[in-house]
Queue: 4 jobs
Job 1
Amino acid sequence: MSVPQKKILVTNSKTGIQTSVLYDDLIKSAYANLSRIQLRNLNSNSDGNPTFYKYSKTQIVSFLSNPASNEKQLRDMSRYLYNISNYYRRLIQYFADMSTFSYVVVPYGLDRSKNINTTKFKKGYRATIDTLDRMNIPHEFSQAFKIAFRDDVYYGYK
C-alpha cells in the first residue's frame, strides 16, 4: 500500500505559469539550491575583496594613518561602504538602534511648601509630554546616530 503524495501549486515568478509539484520534490530542489550558495571567509587575509574594488588595502591604511588630513576620503569611503557592504551597514544600524532613547519627565523647581495648582500643573505636564511625542525622539535620534556613525559628524536642523 502506498502513501499518497501531497501536491503543491507553484507559480513560476518569471513566466507566471502555475504547475502542480510534489512536496518532496519541492523540498529536495530547495535544498539543492541552498548547497550552491557561496560563503565568504571573513577570516581571510587576502588583499582583494570581490565586493569592494574602489579602495585598496594600501589606500585604506594610508587614510587611517593620518585621519586629520584625509577626512574627506574617509567620509567618502564610509559612505561607499555603507551603500555597498551589508556587514558595515548592519553594524552601524545595530549600534545606532541599540539605545531606546526612553525618557522620563520629572517636574523640578516645585515649592512643596506652597499649594500647587493641580489643573495648571497637569496642563503644563501634558503639554510637555505632547511636545516630546511630536518630536518622535527615538526615531529622530536613531537616524542622527546612523548619520553620525557613518559620517563621524551630524548637523541636525528641522
Job 2
Amino acid sequence: MRSWWGYAADDPVGPWQGHPLAGATSLFLPPTGCSTGERLSVGVVATCGSWLESPRARAVPLRGWNVLTIRRYEAADAATVWALNRLPHLGATGDPSVPLQLEPLDSPPSQFPDLADIDSTFIAAGGDFFVADMGGHLVGMAGFRANEAGQAQVLRVRVHPAVRRHRLGARLMGVVERRAVELGFTEAFLDTSTHQPEAMAFYRSLGYQEVGRETRPDWDWTLVYFAKQL
C-alpha cells in the first residue's frame, strides 16, 4: 500500500496499536508537495514517492519528513502559545497553506487569561500543559487542571491548521490523559460547543460521552459538556 503520511506507533486510534514499535515518541508528517494517500499498513513506512518495509526505519527521521515531539510546556513557549491560540479553530479550519512559523505575540489573549501564566494556572494548580513541537515550530497544545468536582478539566486544545487531519489532536489528548492518570485523576472533563461540530465528533471518537448542555439567551450556540473515565 502506498501512502504519503503516517501515524506515530503509539497513536491509540491509529493502525499501530499492539505493534512492536508501540511507545515510539515521533510522528512523521509529509513534506511539502506530497499529497495525502491511504493510511499506512502496520510495518510500512511511507516516503514521498517510495515506501520501506522495515518497521525499524521509523526509529530515525526520514529525509524530507518532519519529526513531531510532544513535550511539557516551557516558559519560553509563552509568546508562541499565545499566537497559536489566536489561529482559527472553529469549524473545518484545516489549511496546509498556513505557515508553520508563527509570529510571537507581545501579550496573552484577553479572552483566555489562564494562558498568561501557564505555570501557575495549570502546572502549579495540580495539572499540566503540553506543546507539540515540529522542527522547532509549535503546532499544537493542550492542558488540564483539577476542577471543583475533582476531575481533570482539559482546556486550550489547539492544533495548527497546517497539520490538522494527521491525528495530532488525538496524540495530544493521549498525552494529557496519561499524565492525568499519573497525577491520580480518574475522570477527564471538557466542554465544546454546537458551533464546533468537528470538535464534538473528535471528542466522541476518543471515548468522551456527553454529560450535559448549557445555553443562554444571548448565545446563538449551546455549550456541550463531555466526560471520560480514565
Job 3
Amino acid sequence: MGARGTIQIIDENDNICHLYTHWDGGQLWETAVEGLRRVKEAGRMNDTPYATRIIFDTLTGRQDSTTGYGIILGDNIPGDVEFDSPVIHFMQRGGVQLYARSGIASPVYYTPECISDDPNDHQGATCPIHEAWQEVN
C-alpha cells in the first residue's frame, strides 16, 4: 500500500536525482510547483543544491521521520512507483523547465488533469497549476 512517486531533478550538468515519497504520489505536481515557488521566493533559482533541498522540504513538510521519503541518486527509480514524475530541469543558461517524465518531450504545463502547453486551453476552466507555474516562471 502507499502512493509512491518521485520528483525528478536534473541539474545544469544533467545530473539526475529523484525525491521519493512513499505516501504523497498523488500530489507530486502541486508539490513541484509549490516547491519552485518557494525556490523563486528564496532567490535560489540558479542554485540547484539549495533549490533541491527547498523542494525536498516542500515534499516532506520537514518531518523528523526516518521513513516515508528518500533521495535517489541517478535515474534508477523503484519499480513500484505508481505516479508519473514531474521533472524539474535547471538549465545551463538559467531558467527552469517543468515537464512530465512519461515521454512528453517538450516542456509543458502539466497536471494529471491537463496535458496542454496552453494555460488558456481548459474548456473555460482555470487550471491552478498553470496559474502557479506562471507565477514561478
Job 4
Amino acid sequence: MRKALNRKPAPSLRGSSLQIIPLLGLPEIRRGDDLAKLIAAQSRSRGFSFEDGDVLVVAQKIVSKAEGRVVTLSRLRPSPEALRLSRELRQDVRFLQAILQETRRIVRKGPRALIVETHHGFVCANAGVDRSNVPGNDRVTLLPRNPDASARRLAAALKRRTRKRVAVIISDTFGRPWRLGLVNVAIGAAGLPVLVDLRFSLWRMNWRPPRDSRCEKGRAFPPS
C-alpha cells in the first residue's frame, strides 16, 4: 500500500524496506458486510493505493463479524459439562457453553480462562470466544470456521476490486504458555508462504545433520 507522494522513494530503499500503514476509520462491521469493498473504499479515502506484493493484516474480529460468527449467550442451552465447569470455576455457564462448542479438548482449567484446543487445532484461551468490541452485553464472537478460506476469499475479492495481488493475514491475539504479555498470531493466511524450510541451509552453515528447523513465517509476530 502506497500513499500518493510527489517524490519517489530513494532507490536504495526499494526492495529492502518495510512500511506499516494503519487503515483507520472502518465502520462497525456487521454480518454480511463486504470487507473488500469497505477496505478498498477506506484506503482510497485516506489517499492510499494497494500495490502488488502488499500484505494486508486484518483483525479476526471483523472477519468473524462479517461472517456472522457472533453468538447471543442467552440463546445457548448449557450442557452438563458446562454446568459442572461453571460450579467448579465460578464462571458464566453460558460463556463456558460457547467455549465448549468451539473446543476439541480442554488442555488446562483456570479461574480466568480455559486453555483449549479448538476444532481448527489452535491452542488458546477460551477457544477464541471473546466479549470485547462486540455491541451488547450478551454477545460474543467466535473464530472464523476456516480462517485460511476466509483469507483466500478476501484476497480474491481485493484483487477483483484493486487489480493488485494483495496477500491477506487474519490475525488474533494469543497468550503464550508461562509468559506474560500477548502476541498476534496469524490464524489464517493467503497469498504468501507461511512455512519456510531452513533445515538444509542450517546444515550447510553448521555442518551438522539436518533436523526439523521449519519456521512458520507468517504464523506468529509481535503485536504492533
